Amino acid sequence: MPRYDHSSIEPKWQAFWAQNRTFETPDQPKEGSAGKLYVLDMFPYPSGDGLHVGHPEGYTATDIICRYARHQGKHVLHPMGWDAFGLPAEQHAIKTGTHPRDTTYKNIDNFRRQLQMLGFSYDWTREISTTDEEYVRWTQWIFLQLFNSWFDPTFEWTGPDGVKRTGKARPIADLPIPDDVKSQGETAVRSYQDERRLAYQSEAPVNWCPALGTVLANEEVTSEGKSERGNHPVERRKLRQWMLRITAFAERLLNELEPLDWPESVKSLQRNWIGKSIGAEVDFFVLEPGKKADSSDQYLSQRASSGFPAKPGDDVLRVYTTRPDTLFGATYMVVAPEHPIVDRIVTAEQKEAVEEYRRKSASKTDLDRTDLAKEKSGVFTGAYALNPVNGAETPIWVADYVLMSYGTGAIMAVPAHDERDLEFAQTFDLPVIPVVQPPDEKTNPIGFTDPGTAINSGDYDGTPTADFKKKITADLAERGLGREAVNYRLRDWLFSRQRYWGEPFPIWHELDDQGNPTGMIRGVDESELPVTLPDMDDFAPKGTPDPPLSAAPESWLYKTAADGTRLRRETNSMPQWAGSCWYYLRFCDPKNTDAFIDPEKEKYWLPVDCYIGGAEHAVLHLLYSRFWHKALFDLGHLSKPEPFQKLVNQGMILGEAELTAYRIADESAYSDQRDEKFATDLQRPWVSARNVEEKDGQYVEKETGAVLEAVMIENDQVAKKGNDFVLKDDASIVVDSRAHKMSKSRGNVINPDDIVKHYGADALRLYEMFMGPLEQTKPWSMSGVEGVYRFLGRVWRMIVDDAAESVVLNPAIKDVEPTEAQDRVLHKTIKAVTEDIEKLSFNTAISRMMEFTNEFSGQNPRPKSAMSQFLLLLSPFAPHLAEELWQVLGHSDSLAYAAWPKFDEAKLVESEIEIPVQVNGKLRAKIKVPADSDAKAMEEAAKADESVAAQLEGKQIVKTVCIPGRLVNFVVKG
User: Fold this and answer.
1) Which residues lie across from 712 on neighbouring strands?
2) Which of 529, 576, 717, 954 is the one with CA 20 to 30 A from 363?
């Protein structure tokens, strides 16, 4: 009996596709091509754990799209590669002594095996890894393009797309050099250029993790100030870092986001991350102790005559505010602990306290410092500044809730109209002056943050907020004390990492005769690319910010230039983001040794038509890629301004539902009166699941707000009570059944190897698409896998004779024309599956195919043509089974490029319809009538039905309601 045997079918077709190079993408489309389609997955980091079943969800979706497009005659590009640099491989190398290169390529081999095992139709001839030397070469080349460029914010130009823009990346050679800089010589000119490059060096406060021996981005640090990887303490340090000037592109990153076919949630996240706001820059004059009035008069006079300067002087504290209308309510000022003005203004009496506060702040993350719930802290500098609108002497404080990375690193504090400022003012007993009256005069103005009208604001009293903003900004500008300004929350991209396993920077540092850096830098000549990593065997962090590459052999570290200058290489490495910023370009032309991409191939393939990946990359990866792309576009290397036209985020697949109970996490969080009868050995009481809510990533008790911990419960510890689970020891404690994110720590990771072994790749693919809408988060269920596996078995038996000794056609399959009813079902299925695929509604497409199988499995004969068309519908979802059954039906070629079935609207029209018949509103029968029946014909057909006739017998029909095509209802009495 030839059962459905996935273990023999799937390897057979995977070998066939590989041997026949079925899915290789030619550079040129075939004659009559229906157009190009570039479909891309967010390529994976090849970890040592391999894939779990959550990974293939997005890959399956893109594969369905690509297989469907090939059936439509499109020229499809569907590549795969590896984001292979990164900290995990280096950490593994430190622990095991295995070189990260060896670990990485071993992991890649495993990932590739798993993806091929799942039957994805990638063009493996285009496979790339960010660690490949040729790929590194072009990553470094792109960095040099940024290094050798500057951004001209006023340059007006029209791009190759025909769009007029203001602001452009231009070659550094085009940067105008002021005469006073030229007069100082070549060193001054080079320094002037270095300060304005798109890739530049800066002393930046960073998240330094001593245990990992590297700087971490903010998103790599937890809210507890620990490293996301390894949970190690993180501290703030000032280090020399490479930065990329992404802020120069902020306005274009915002404006050119709007036309993209992306989820609105992702667009919103990017807008918020960029964080554009319109307000004013205002200068407060820092007063000298004992010379307050005298020094300020001269300052105000000078400003009135010379206007607002490009840079504030040493005696000026500049703030950025979105509410210049509240200047009269500024009762104190706050500067970030890192602000350079602190050293200049702190008084001798306050110096020790300020330095101690700055030291403590240095160990906090930005997330911790800006936590609204934390108690406000700060220290007075001893200095005062002059409020430019009313002459008030305003005390200057240092507080860590202000970040140097936002605005100017200084704020005017208006406690009456800002929650954080009010908490701070209350903590340190500082004045609170309301200056905005709410529309409802009964509302307390203190704490009011919306627009209103001005109060306590001198001549501006009674002015509406919107008008006040414009007027006071103009007045400040006229006096040389302020100007309208646009600000962005976005900060320049911190691009350095202190680790070995990353791309080396193609940069030389010039040394003096004693071997010390002069501060001058130069790019590696392009002919010397790639700069490859030196062979090393010690990658362990030294406990200092010195990168591992600083211990590289001298032959790698040093050289003497042709002009006699002694040079030392940059020893920081690029972050993992570097390689993933542009891989979509290289896939179009992966073997090119003369350019990072051929211009004609770029024009043909880009932008990516459909990009699918996890929502966790909604901001950083996408924002960074867009930034690199726009810089290359500006410099003439690309013809399109955006890399990804359509974006889809697949939902997360959670582990199978687990039984979970909740208990108090901290014994100090509850009173002695709490019932502890069923507490653990630590005497922490249980809490009913009915009284638990999830809040800010934690489980808390609704009544008290106490933080809870979730405890997994074994099945034998619970009993079912109604719709609830309860702990057997105490029926009052409810156990929650819920699914959690797959993780090794929870032990709920499902290996796709195990699923494929028992059920096959087609079943795994089909189940992941059948679980629910692609974008939704969904729990895994082994019973669900079993269900789609049974469906595939029904498809097999619909076409194969399961009573025969070998694989032969089911005798019910005949080379006959479909009946009218069969044709209707077939064409309805073709229409529905086609439309569902185009909407990415894969779960409903599968439901349609299940209905088709149920309809046809019991029929005899089954038209061979209908079976062939059905297999084409199934093939994007279950390609192995479809190919096998296509062959069983007698087709000699692969179905991979067979034409997609077309539906005929005329065949969707039913000649007969089924309508319900009611008696006094209750359903009594369903009858079939011609689709064009009028009311009279429907009534007669209903009365002729035996069940209806029995209900009407002996009764008086008071009224008959007939709605053609819908229903018949008899109203009777008696």
Assistant:
1) 660
2) 576
Distance CA 493, CA 276 (A): 17
Per DSSP, 746 falls in state T
505 vs 535: CA distance, rounded Å? 16
- Terminal Cα distance for the chain, rounded: 62
* Residues ≥6 apart with Cβ < 8 Å to 129: 81, 82, 84, 104, 105, 108, 135
CA distances from 488 to 254, 280, 439, 613, 634 (A): 11, 13, 30, 27, 22
Q: How far apart are CA 915 and CA 924, in angstroms?
A: 11
Alpha-carbon gap, residue 716 to 677, rounded angstroms: 20
- Candidates 690, 907, 212, 811; CA nearest to 498 is 212
Q: Domains, the chain, ranges and CATH?
A: 276-486 (3.90.740.10), 658-738 (no CATH), 781-907 (1.10.730.10), 911-973 (3.10.20.590)
The DSSP letter of residue 641 is S
Q: How far is CA 242 from the centre of its chain?
A: 24
| Residue 293: pLDDT over 80 | no
Q: Which residue is associated with the tokens 């095991």?
A: 96
SS (H, E, C) 698-720: EEEECCCCCEEEEEECCHHHEEE
The single residue listed with the structure tokens 């050099």 is 177
Q: Is the dihedral of CA 439, 443, 444, 450 positive or negative?
A: negative
Q: What is the DSSP letter of 644?
A: B
Q: What is the DSSP letter of 154?
A: E
Mean pLDDT of 682-696: 76
Give the integer Cα–Cα distance in Å for 702 and 665. Answer: 14
50 phi-psi bin (left φ>0, alpha ψ -120 to 50, beta other) = left
Place of tokens 């966790």: 616
For tokens 């103009």, name the residue.
474
pTM of the entire structure? 0.85
DSSP letter string over 494-551? E--B--SSSPBP-EEEEE-TTS-EEEEEEEPPGGG---PPPP-S-----SSS--GGGG
Q: Which helix (H) or strand (E) holds 927?
A: strand 922-930
On the 0-12 / 13-18 / 19+ scale of CB atoms within 10 A, 768 is: buried
What does the pLDDT look like over 876-933, one tens digit per residue? Answer: 999 999 999 999 999 999 999 999 999 999 888 777 888 999 999 999 999 999 888 9
Nearest to 542 by CA among 571, 574, 585: 571
- Token pair of 655 as six digits: 């582990």
pLDDT band at residue 673, thresholds of 50, 70 and 90? Answer: very low
Phi–psi pair at 423, nearest 5 degrees: -60, -45
Cα 435 from Cα 412, distance rounded (Å): 14
Contact 175, 193 (CB under 8 A): yes
Tell me the residue length of the chain.
Answer: 974
Q: In whole angstroms, give the CA distance from residue 432 to residue 453.
A: 17
Helix (H) or strand (E) holding 836: helix 820-838
CA–CA gap between residue 740 and residue 746 (Å, rounded): 8
Query: Is the predicted pLDDT of residue 351 greater than 80, yes or no?
Result: yes
Query: Residue 307, Cβ neighbours under 10 Å: how many?
Result: 12
Q: How confident is the model at residue 429 (pLDDT cuts 50, 70, 90)?
A: very high
* Token output for 223: 């809210």
Written as six digits, the tokens of 293 are 């009035």
For residues 312-322, average pLDDT = 91
Record the tokens describing residue 659, joined without a space.
Answer: 């039984």
For 263-309, the three-class secondary structure string (H helix, E strand, C coil) is CHHHHHHHHHHHCEEEEEEEEEEEECCCCHHHHHHHHHHHHHHHCCC
By CB neighbour count within 10 A (0-12 exposed, 13-18 middle, 19+ buried), where does 408 fall?
buried
For residue 522, give both structure tokens: 């130069």
